[in-house]
Amino acid sequence: MVHMVKRSTANNHDFADLTHIFNPRSVAIIGASEKPGKVGQVIMQNYMDAGFQGALYPVNINAGEKISGYKAYKSVLDIRKEIDLVVIAIPAAGVPNVLEECGKAKANGAVIVSGGFAEVGAADLEEKIKQISKKYKMPFIGPNCLGVMDPRARIDTLFLPTYKIERPKIGGVSFVSQSGSVGSSTLDLISAEGFGLSRFISYGNATVVDEVDILHFLAKDKNTKVIVYYLEGAKRGREFIEVAKEVTKSKPVVIIKGGITETGATAAHSHTASLAGSYESYSAVFRQFGMTEAHELEELIYFAKIFDTQPLVTGNRVAVITNGGGHGVLATDAIYQNGLTFPQLTKESQKELRRRMPPIVNIALPMDVGGEADYKRFGDALEVLSTDQNVDAIMMIALFQTPGADEKLVDAVVNFNNGKKKPLVVVSTGSSYTQSHTKLMESAGVPVYESPSAAAKALAALISYSRYREKAV
Amino acid sequence: MVHMVKRSTANNHDFADLTHIFNPRSVAIIGASEKPGKVGQVIMQNYMDAGFQGALYPVNINAGEKISGYKAYKSVLDIRKEIDLVVIAIPAAGVPNVLEECGKAKANGAVIVSGGFAEVGAADLEEKIKQISKKYKMPFIGPNCLGVMDPRARIDTLFLPTYKIERPKIGGVSFVSQSGSVGSSTLDLISAEGFGLSRFISYGNATVVDEVDILHFLAKDKNTKVIVYYLEGAKRGREFIEVAKEVTKSKPVVIIKGGITETGATAAHSHTASLAGSYESYSAVFRQFGMTEAHELEELIYFAKIFDTQPLVTGNRVAVITNGGGHGVLATDAIYQNGLTFPQLTKESQKELRRRMPPIVNIALPMDVGGEADYKRFGDALEVLSTDQNVDAIMMIALFQTPGADEKLVDAVVNFNNGKKKPLVVVSTGSSYTQSHTKLMESAGVPVYESPSAAAKALAALISYSRYREKAV
Description:
Largest interface: A-B, 78 and 78 residues
Number of strands of chain A: 19
CATH class of the largest domain in chain A: Alpha Beta
Number of domains of chain A: 3
Oligomer: homodimer
Strand content of chain A: 15-25%
Structural class of chain A: alpha/beta
CATH superfamily of the largest domain in chain A: Succinyl-CoA synthetase domains
Number of helices of chain A: 16
Largest sheet of chain A: 7 strands, mixed
Strand order of the largest sheet of chain A: 9-8-11-10-12-13-14
Helix content of chain A: 25-40%
């Protein structure tokens, strides 16, 4: 169902194929090292940890025979085999020479993680590497970035060790970040939340490969189901919007924009050397073309999670089941505040609920199944509500502090969710006992939220995008 | 600095002293049991786990010689000693008789955890226990509630085991909840967040002791520094506001209101048998009288944390230090969106920062100390900024994914925070490695937030309340 998007002609470089960078069969790491703490050592280690299946060539001008058990090279020119991706992790001043060698070695692409270019005023140095890239028609990501991480292709150019940033499991969310700090901490959060990653791309100064090129690539990438961007400014803002407008017809695009206040925009300008545009114009256009805007980092996770796991739905009638009265009240508020509503249950399902629930349960929405409700009662409620034609989606509040909620409830929820009958969001919040159960649900593809308002925001985003898609396609 | 508040004359009962309920020297547990899963067993166990230092009297009509090693009684009348607090955990129908016996035994107060009263339509039964309370001038909390938990007084009437709900450490936040579900899950969250609790009070149907009585008590309670309410409706709304207006002159009061939409209010009415008032009127009055309104459960935690740990400040000039450029941009946006601003640093501190920071660090705000910044560089920045007369508060973004951030940074932050020079909020977000470090900071009294926007909201609440206090006192 992926629509092919026409490549913009105003592209700032004349080569289009990023496949070698994103799905390399061979990788050279320039600056590779065995010295603990060296950037090139961490990257080398991460490639080995990721279990990269292609050829791995450590390159270091001071190298001996081997680095970490792999045959080592003093220069990329010594490799004399096809190189899909070169990862460059050496001080900025040395990058032009090394990049020139990569060009001569006919490398297909590069990731330059090194900082020390336009972001610190060295625009000349950055222009130099841009020209080298042009000359050899060799695209690169960076500089001043973390590069790429992909649990499926098993590539990992992050120069941060896995004990500091956990790597997410394989999944459908691709996360693209101009900023390394937002990128790395969000990658770590994605691991904590337990949902899966397709590709992580931190593109830094965007000297050659920029947000538009990446969007082109992800649009066609069959492993990417949801595209998430942290964007400060876009040098080719208009083109980004044009491409995104096509992409949202087939995939959700979630965007958080940094630099939306005047002072924030100045801050954005100084640290990645790109220009932040007027926020109002961005925000309106995001909405107009079906992009989902996250207003804070929390929302970025809320939205990625629901798009990754739940089917689209255009109706806004949400049935709430809860084992806590107060949370039912808060959920009701959150539903109506987010433009959602309660369904009018059919006579049949009312009758069936009445038959299955004990007399103490009031089946009116929000349906409070009681603090003593166990997996069976929750399961009955889910079953009946999911077959009601007036119910578009379900919010299930499962507080694991209550006597009836345990691991069996997790099984019941996961089983229901696997049926993918109707979109489901779960609200569970608390300390260790709760967290151990939410992790089980999350890792099985159930989106769990810490509050009714978070869950309602996620549902509203899902419904809003579904409606856009219905009209746009 | 606690102002004494004049007791309202419109009070619905004519006894005022809740000290016996909140600081009991002796506790009788009616329904106490050794049978696993029984409510009375869990409460008995929790009292023992809490290490209650007073006399403990298990009461059960079917009791033998002892229950859990304590001398057991068939009736509260058999105890024949002063009883400060009776915890009643038996089916609703039996409560009036037992309560009558408590009155005859001259018990000083009770907590009735049993449900099955007005909230399920049994208004007569509820009226009956109200009359008994009146007759014996014996106040009670509940019914249909979790009761009280206090790590300092070591009382714990919650009928939910500690493995499901962790109990917070001793601290300054008192949390009052009409709803048991919001109460119990928030109590659990408070434990997860690592800040300390003064008193937890879940008051359910508020038949006798209600939100106003509790507010009176907490106003005078020297262990309570911050008062947090989850409120659905208040039978004595006007009096609540009158009392709160006095309390906010000396203590912050944070409120989250459930039932703020029409449908939400209906839901609230059905589950605690109280009337939810018009939200708009509540919300405006909260603001007018210095209460801090939380709009979602997340904000309740944000605000409680900062009020508990940070000094008041009326200035809104917030200096941002960050080890991630993107987070600096988002922090700048969040600061300006929340009515805060950057300070103009003095010439002296600019000079001192320039002297201490490496040339690569741009000392303009948001000050990006770099991904490689360690505890020393962060410490230097904190030291200089905290002595700058133009800086009112500090937001420090410490991303532990970076190479320089480790346990030494935790020590530096905790040491700085212990000096209590200026309000400090920390932003750290991520998975296991980060979480182990944020827990260390939190448990040492540093308020840590998952995003710049959460931290900015907390600072804005602190400043807004501080300004109210300055004018009001």
